[in-house]
Amino acid sequence: MQPTPKGLLIACKVLKEQIEMLGELPYEAIYLEQGLHRTPKMLTEEIQKIIHENQHHDLIILGYGLCSRAVIGLRGQPHQTMVIPRIDDCIGLSLGERAKYFEQFKLYPGTYYFTKGWTEVGEDPLKEYKRTVEKYDEETAEWTIRSQLANYVRTVYIKTSEGDDREAVDYVKGFADFFNLQYEEMTGSLDYLQKLIFGPWDEDFIVVKGVALTDEMFASDSE
Fold this sequence. Notes:
alpha/beta
């Protein structure tokens, strides 16, 4: 029986609560602020910096998707195995399976998704609107933010636990009302996250060693 490799999980902070529901992790975990997504280059640099600082780890697990191509170019050391979900963003991780994510994307492309973690630590247009109003004025804020959601018609809250999420639900309903979007709820699953952290890693994951992540690695027939 081979010993468990010394691993490191690097994940978006919006996934922290869901990951902790899986129980004790076999690896050290580092959670990064979701706001880094606003500048993909900064997210790339921060993740690569952490990988470089942890060369003593044999396994790097990334709790991210393609994320505006922020993970493209990331590379571990020749001895490090790097694992990442073959998905566009963390919505697929919260839904619980890659196929479900692509099914929803094809049926309802104009959808803004939320989870409890996203309402608590993530950025979204409503939070940005409130900041913009304070900095400029209501007219400027409304024009700026509503233009970002011009192609959206639906908001979905992904329920990821049996815990008390009334505050999160109320927030997402308020978001939908403010931007005149249809509100729906979906039941998520921890299955994809479970496989990411504990394995096995099948075709829903990219597993590389000592080479950089590329766009081609994320492509598949499922899309």
